[in-house]
Amino acid sequence: MNKYIYICAFLFSIALIYSCSDNPTMEPPEEVIEIDTTPYELAYGALPAPNLPEDNVLTVQGVQLGRMLFYEKMLSSDNSQSCASCHRQEHAFSDTTKFSIGVQGLPGKRQAMSVFNMAWNTNEFFWDGRAHLLRDQAILPIQDELEMDETLDNVIAKLADSKTYRDQFTRTFGDDEITVDKMAKAMEQFMFSIVSYDSKFDQWKAGLVELTESEERGRLLYETEYNPFFPQFSGADCAHCHGGANFENDQYMNNGLDSDENFMDMGRAKVTMDPSDNAKFKVPSLRNIELTAPYMHDGRFATLEEVIDHYNEGIHPSTTIDPALLATSETGLFLNDEDKVDLLNFLKTLTDQTMLADPAYSDPF
To answer: CATH no. for residue 300?
Structure first.
């Protein structure tokens, strides 16, 4: 009986060896790609909860797809530039050139704005607010002849040739069809995920660090209003326009860069067609301001020192200037050299080193 069992086992082993040798290149089954709706956990520290769109809930896969597209050079006509080319992480997702240079070697018309804390933006996008939603903003530079100079049809065709992208669109949206709407929503998700909330100022607010004497004095100057009647108690009045947790006010304002006859860019008025909006531009966040030179919509100021000098002594009255700034045009802000240094030192406490080094925002390729 035992001999019979041994013979059968031997014959089975021979058959098994033969079977394996007959199929030496067996391949594992192809991976099945399915939708993954795992929510993306947005961290924002002590910032107020953002009001995110209900029709584009952030997911892990959606943010990843948006990140891929943000760094994807196929979005440009010659495959040389991506969104990240002009919105670099090390510069708080802004550009250090006065006007970004597009694929045709042509300069843009305005300085590239920073891309962070977009989830706390409630008054449309770009310097003039011509894009209603962040997803609308995401696709306009692709089509701008001064920027990426590509058609959306060509972008879709290029992405559709990539199995990597087809699979990622499936993970995000449930199928591999690539559309403009899906692209825009994915890019919106990634940009919403870029959050700045861990600067030295935030750590000070949380009681984790102390401000230096100069930084604290600068903070008080920043928050104290202009007082023409008691100059010794007058402040820099920055919080009038750059207040709140995100250091901005979600408004469009004329900050006294030029008088009426010198308006070169009508700003918000190009969108609203309302003369009362002439030379008004979006008030940007001052978070990470140390890293986002040059300054203003036209990049006219190379340094923060120049910006402070403008508000202290360079305001130009006009018909659409903000009234609070107009009030300072005759006397200036009374800031002396020490005040300027202290104010500058406080502004540098708004730099978020955590965001600058976060691998979640870096090039995924």
So the answer is: 1.10.760.10
Copy the structure tokens of residue 331. 């006397």
User: For 54, how many CA atoms within 13 A lie in the half-sphere containing its CB?
Assistant: 0
Residue 178 lies in a domain: yes
Distance, in Å, from the CA atom of 302 to the CA atom of 297, rounded to the nearest integer, reads 12
The distance from CA 159 to its chain's CA centroid, rounded to whole angstroms, is: 23
Provide the β-strand partners of residue 125.
Answer: 131
Pair (219, 292) in one structural domain:
yes
> Is 279 part of a structural domain of the chain?
yes
Coil/strand/helix, residue 131:
strand
What does each of the 365 residues of the chain score in pLDDT, given as a tens digit? Answer: 444 444 444 444 444 444 444 455 566 677 889 999 999 999 999 999 999 999 999 999 999 999 999 999 999 999 999 999 999 999 999 999 999 999 999 999 999 999 999 999 989 999 999 999 999 999 999 999 999 999 999 999 999 999 999 999 999 999 999 999 999 999 999 999 999 999 999 999 999 999 999 999 999 999 999 999 999 999 999 999 999 999 999 999 999 999 999 999 999 999 999 999 999 999 999 999 999 999 999 999 999 999 999 999 999 999 999 999 999 999 999 999 999 999 999 999 999 999 999 999 999 99
Q: Domain containing 109: what range?
A: 60-196+355-361
Residues 212 and 186 in one domain: no
In a domain, 208, yes or no: yes
Evaluate whether residue 274 is within a structural domain: yes
pTM: 0.90
Tokens 């007082």 correspond to what residue?
227
What is the Cα Rg of the chain in Å? Answer: 27
Among 119, 116, 51, 148, smallest CA distance to 352 is for 116
The whole-angstrom separation of Cα 45 and Cα 202 is 9
Instruction: Quote the distance between the C-alpha of residue 23 and its chain's center.
Output: 53
